[in-house]
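Trying the structure run again after the queue cleared.
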Amino acid sequence: MWVNAQTMAFAIDEINRNANLLPNVTLGYTLYDNCVELGIGFRGALSLAGGQEEQIISNGTCTGNLPVLGIVGDSSSTPSIAISSVLGLYRVPIVSYFATCSCLSDHRKYPSFFRTIPSDAFQVRAIIKILKHFGWTWAGLLISDDDYGRHAARSLQFELSLSGEGCLDYIEVLPWDKDTDELRRIVNVMKKSTARVVIAFVHESHMINLMEEVNEGWTATAGVLQTPQFMPYLGGTLGIAIRRGEIPGLREFLLQIQFHYAIFAPAPAGWLEGGGALCTGQEDLENVNTEILDISNLRPEYNVYKAVYALAYSLDDMLQCNPGRGPFSRQSCATLQSLQPWQLLYYLERVNFTTPFGDQVSFDENGDVVPIYDVMNWLWLPDGSTKVQNVGEVKSSALYGEELILDEDKIFWNFISKKTSKVFCFVFSTIYLFSFILKIVCISPSSAFLIFLLLPDSLECTSCPEDFWSNPQRDHCVPKKTEFLSYHEPLGICLTATSLLGTCICAVVLGIFIYHHRTPIIRANNSELSFQVLLSLKLCFLCSLLFIGRPRLWTCQLRHAAFGISFVLCVSCILVKTMVVLAVFKASKPGGGTSLKWFGAMQQRGTVLFLTSIQAAICTTWLVSSSPTPHKNTQYQNDKIVYECAFGSTVGFAVLLGYIGILAFLSFLIAFLVRNLPDSFNEAKLITFSMLIFCAVWVAFVPVYISSPGNYADAVEVFAILASSFGLLITLFGPKCYIILLRPELNTKKAIMGHGT
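Done. Tokens:
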């Protein structure tokens, strides 16, 4: 982090000395150490952005509480989310050099957030390209318990499911502290898993804890891990790293810094006696080989450099605005004396410049930089030392899209042959010999992506055919399980039995009505239409059977057509019955005799036929234009095939249901209006109640059907058909059967007309 801060200071010093960039403007800065604590970083950001004066006083001095025009940082995703959530409200520009969470690409939620490091979304896609290149398709996943880990894992799962290039066997969250029991549990999961690739989105310290538990090592471009005890496992590592850059003049700038040392504790026992010396602060560092002054591998530092220059170029573009041709209200320009952060934000969104190293820097609509990663390879040299070399790159461009470029001839592997070399594998077994390929892909010393691969001899991964899935041992393909609403499962049996029961009850009621067709209660309630309603209800019960069983082309085409026509026939008869009741009542009044001539037997049949033919036309149009077809659905579970009928046209199904709903609503409305007619047995009351039940069932059906997965959607539709059919059957014919069979003394003309007791 010290080098990052000094890189920022160097960049600002370099800008101030550049006569062509921000002439007559001197940039200053304030540094805050977040101490890897969310609260400290958040308070620091608020301190930077708070207490701004309304105007800059150009008096030749930089004293006082001057405004902060932009923030470089934070280095982690979670603090960046917190800071951006608040400072985004004030449109204070924030340019992070290390926060990679894909969630920060939501520019509506974080409108002032930008970054010079690619997001996890591209990081994940880059890793998937490497996995695909080497044929690694079965893996486990380790993540940190923070926004970085969770969002990276979510992106990885989404991209794998989208591409179909691989699967995850398990997902484990590494603890923040060194919880030995939890780490040992995770190691056991890895041991028992059949996956030989482990992917990790974790911080270095967390991964070191795990590697110590399994006697393995962690990798990054950090030298701390390039030690002899780790190199038997890490030699040959292939990984991605932040784009390396060169910053001319940085080493000389660092050498000018006067180092001061504070002794907080005495030297270790025997240190001075063994020839060790104490630092005085006057040492000449120019000829000392130290990591602090090593500028050959500038990665996060290069991102800091680009972030500072992005803010500087944005400010320079803003100051070059010509009055009267500006981007703000009334074509005005922003001025340095009354500059607002949101005005600088406008130019930061459009900044475009090239670094001395030759990299173009600009931001897309999400605040993300043009993504690019270096592909690195660890060499274990014969003398025991290590060397990291660049063997390719993963980048995105408008012309070629996302591409992986590898020089495989340069790649060093930790064995003679990938398929024949044998070493002991201490992670999975201490006695079993494996072909051992260790791959670790990392982003940085503090947040990294890890893959290590353990392959048995001559193991080859092949994709199973579409309708097959790998067995638990992952050594051959087996047919996927199939699922549909079957006649042989309990749910299908219950629905089938209920459908047949309803059909039988309809037949019994029809028999009762035929036998007693000369009695007053049947003759008074339009016996012909009653018979038609019973026949249509039988069809409604029977059509539900088309939804049970494995979907075929003819059942998919017939099920909704039969359902729609059967219910329209039933509801049409009920609607006509209701209209006849209304016409009879009007005819009983003085001067209303003409109303009955429009509801004779022929007119009633014609109305029912006309209303039903409209539904038949809707079904025909649907079947001809976009017919329902059988469909194999694997969205719910990859190892299972759910057979279902695809609608073909959702609009067709909606129109079919909508037409039934219109007729039912009209029946309910008319029946409700005539429910208080003076007849003792007024069928309008029964129709009102039946239509109320019918509408309630189908209104509840729509949301439940949409939210039901797989074969449960068919079960929901069958249940709705049966429930509404039983509702009509019981409410319309239950009272009549009760009078016919149990209260025959009420089945008289006097009782029906209300003249008897």
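Residues 52-57, 217-225, 416-460 have pLDDT under 50 and may be disordered. Worth checking whether this holds up in the mutant runs.
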